[in-house]
Amino acid sequence: MKILRCASKIALFFNRIVLVAALLLFLAVGQANASSEAVKKAGLQYACALLDMMSYKSQLNEVIRDVISDFGYDIVNYANVDKNADTNFILLRSKEPEELTGNYLNIVAVPGTEKMKDVQVDLRFSKVLFGGSVPSEFEQYAKTEKTTSEQPLVHKGFNDYTQTAFFTPKEDGSLGVDPLMDIIYKDNEDLILTGHSLGGSVAVLLGSRMVCMGVPPGKIQVVTFGAPAVGNKTFAKDYGDAVKHTRYTISGDPVHGLLQFIKAGYEQTGEEIKCKSNPNSLKFSHNMSEYLDASIRNYLDTLEEKNIKLHNNPPANGTAGVFALPKEPVKGRVYLVPAVVHVPDDIDNDIVYMKQLTNLIEGYDFDDYIDGDETDEAAQNAAAIRNSCDRICRVTIGAKQMTRKVYQITVQEDISDPYGNIISTQTRGTTTDNLSPIEAVFYSLGRCTMNRESFE
Q1: H-type alpha helices, 195-242
Q2: What CATH code is carried by the domain that includes residue 352?
Q3: What is the pLDDT of residues 312-323, one digit of tens each?
Q4: Strand 266-267 versus strand 231-232 pairing type
């Protein structure tokens, strides 16, 4: 997917808040081995994590939108408010067909709980009847007073949010679901619904509602992170297979199982995939940044397992590599020296990922690059000359522990010619207050990359 290509460019804006952390890790699965289902699945997980993070309120959203638009995508914000909910969601749409599928990509992302009115939505634990085939009927069914467990019942608050966001007329008379229905009935359009926490539950309900409106079962794909159950056993039985639902959870996250614990009769839908928890974090496991960190590890592990290299330059056979960016101004051919990493022992399990990310990000914005393996500086210079490189890039990553599980991460980038003449040197860094160590490295690498403005 072309949108995966913009990861490094967005890195410049990866700061201040956890929600933007996902941006840097949205890698080039669209250019990866098309036959690898594991890689494609990991890439889809990243894509959805990106949009879920962006769906939360952020002062950086406008900047991020500008960057993504450079890569052939539009992001449109939708919102609707009534007495039941204060709702919003974003819709990403590709301007051109995707290279692998030939289809246009569309992703809807619904944010999780972030406002007091969202908390009120979460706390409406009672169940309402799920039924109908048009928006007005959805509302009428939900008002049914006498129901039984033999009928499909869903969480009242989640249903309220879904109804307000997608099926309640706005001032101009339009519905939030209108552009989605236009998309789904075109042969060359793919639609994915995603959300974190409350947003994930709404995505499941939205997909089910669209099936009720006539969308063929299986046409819509839903990806959720830490999402609570939506309805009862009957709902799960009747509508669980209506959409393809992939449900990511993390050990220690109580939210995805909370309703079953508090209120009897709720049952999850979809295929559960358990993510590895972040061993270097004290953050609440439900936090979206924790799901992102788990996705980083999964994606890079998947590429490693499938022996897919993160190369910017095309292979000898001329086919596209994993990370193939649009042509940028030529800034030379660079020889990438293996990163040197010095971090405390309790986060040294992140070193392998830090090195992989360095290999990926540092090649961005150069006309071409090759990966080196020499550790001696003289050997590196000789290898650069031998491979017709006019730049050598050396990266050193360090970490200083500030408090328990909080580190100051620094990345120093030194770029020279093959004869030892320094062209550029810079140091960037951030803390892990709101980021994982891996995300902090990615941010700092991106800052270095985007700061290269004066190369000839």
Answers
A1: 198-212, 233-239
A2: 3.40.50
A3: 444 333 333 333
A4: antiparallel
Is 305 contained in some domain?
A: no
C-alpha span between 436 and 288 (Å, rounded): 12
Q: Is 172 exposed, middle or buried (0-12, 13-18, 19+ CB in 10 A)?
A: exposed
To 10 degrees, what angle do helices 288-305 and 351-361 make? 80
Domains in the chain, number? 2
pLDDT for the residue numbered 292:
81
Phi, psi of 158 (to 5 degrees): -65, -40
Q: What percent of the chain stands above pLDDT 70?
A: 80
Looking at the fold, whether 351 and 294 belong to one and the same domain comes out as no
Q: What's the average model confidence in pLDDT over 302-318?
A: 56
3-state secondary structure of 37: helix
Environment class of 319 (CB within 10 Å of its CB; exposed 0-12, middle 13-18, buried 19+): exposed
**369 in Cβ contact with 313 (< 8 Å):** yes
3-state secondary structure of 306: coil
Q: How many CB atoms neighbour CB 221 within 10 A?
A: 18
R_g (Cα) of the chain, nearest Å? 23
Residues 361 and 318 in one domain: yes
48-52, 155-159, 189-193, 341-345 — which is least confidently predicted? Answer: 48-52
pLDDT the model gives residue 309: 57
Bigger pLDDT: 5 or 280?
280
Residues 6+ apart with CB under 8 A from 307: none
Sign of the torsion formed by the C-alpha atoms of 309, 39, 200 and 136: positive
pLDDT reading at 71 higher than 80: no
pLDDT at 308: 64
* Distance, CA of 288 to chain centre: 10
Nearest Cα neighbor of 168 from 142, 196, 204 is 142
Whether residue 331 is contained in a domain is answered as yes
Sheet containing 221-225, strands listed edge to edge, beginning at the edge strand earlier in sequence: 73-81, 86-94, 104-110, 189-196, 221-225, 244-250, 271-275
Domain boundary among 270, 300, 330: 300
Nearest in space to 84 (alpha carbons), one of 51, 128, 132: 128
For residue 447, the one-letter residue type is: R
Backbone dihedral angles phi then psi of residue 76, each to the nearest 5 degrees? -115, 135
Query: Domain range spanning residue 375?
Result: 313-450
3-class SS at 347?
helix
